[in-house]
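User: Could you go from structure to sequence for me? I need the amino acid at each position, not a summary. Structure tokens:
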């Protein structure tokens, strides 16, 4: 179950869920329902027929506060992950930003002291979380945040940040909200003859395929969406077997930093011993 209609479909998440369902002999249908959480739950009663459905896995909320629908009243098991809001914006586990702290610490270990973060849209929980972890970690380590540039997840926002702020503020490390923003940053810096990573290191987020073939290849955060889907479906299957679902893994278990060519030592860092 997803909110619908939506421009974005979490393909990797659904692929992981489908794989586990198929391995256990089930088929997976994807259904998008419009309306708020309670309206979706009520419409689900009329659209889904118990004789054709063994269980329901929802990646969006189906109840809201005290006015919510009693999901135990359904004749089949219902597992609500609630990882997307009504507009298909990631929240919960999918919006975890703990790896941002690892990025800052790694770059600090490479001698970087002046940072910039080019943020995503503030409408997204994931963007707000990444900014918060960035600012908190920079402060904890006594580093300098030269700027937090408001962005909108686009290549253009990265280009604009690079050509109007980053190239002139003295930062040697830039953390982008996603890989597309990072691509724009690198292109913008290179257009101003700023070497990446010789003068400025850049890190993205999402490990999109384009980043592996950029020059320089993009350092980024890889998130295992397939595993998230598999874990969610595994918990639903446990309910079908009458078992208690496994506890949720730590959010950090699903993500890791991938270092490639776009990051390196700060330009004024002492050489390694």
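Assistant: Here is the amino acid at each position, in order:
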């Amino acid at each position: 179950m997803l909110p619908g209609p939506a421009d974005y479909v979490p393909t990797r998440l659904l692929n992981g869920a489908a794989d586990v369902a198929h391995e256990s002999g089930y088929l997976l249908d994807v259904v998008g329902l419009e309306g708020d959480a309670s309206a979706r739950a009520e419409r689900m009663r009329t659209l889904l027929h118990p004789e054709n459905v063994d269980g329901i896995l929802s990646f969006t909320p189906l109840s809201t506060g005290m006015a919510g629908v009693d999901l135990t009243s359904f004749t089949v098991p219902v597992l609500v992950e609630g990882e997307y809001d009504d507009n298909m914006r990631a929240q919960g586990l999918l919006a975890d930003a703990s790896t941002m702290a690892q990025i800052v610490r790694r770059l600090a270990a490479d001698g970087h002291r002046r940072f910039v973060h080019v943020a995503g849209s503030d409408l997204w929980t994931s963007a707000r979380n990444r900014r918060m972890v960035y600012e908190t970690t920079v402060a904890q380590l006594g580093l300098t945040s030269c700027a937090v540039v408001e962005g909108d997840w686009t290549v253009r926002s990265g280009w604009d940040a690079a050509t109007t702020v980053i190239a002139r503020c003295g930062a040697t490390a830039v953390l982008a909200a996603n890989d597309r923003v990072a691509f724009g940053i690198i292109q913008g810096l290179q257009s101003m003859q700023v070497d990446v990573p010789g003068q400025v290191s850049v890190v993205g987020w999402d490990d999109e395929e384009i980043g592996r073939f950029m020059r320089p290849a993009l350092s980024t955060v890889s998130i295992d969406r397939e595993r998230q889907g598999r874990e969610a479906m595994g918990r639903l299957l446990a309910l079908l077997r009458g078992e208690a679902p496994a506890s949720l893994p730590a959010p950090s278990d699903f993500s890791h930093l991938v270092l490639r060519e776009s990051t390196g030592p700060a330009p004024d860092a002492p050489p390694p011993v």
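One structural detail worth keeping in mind: Strands lie at 2-3, 32-33, 56-58, 78-80, 114-118, 144-149, 173-176, 201-203, 220-223, 255-258.
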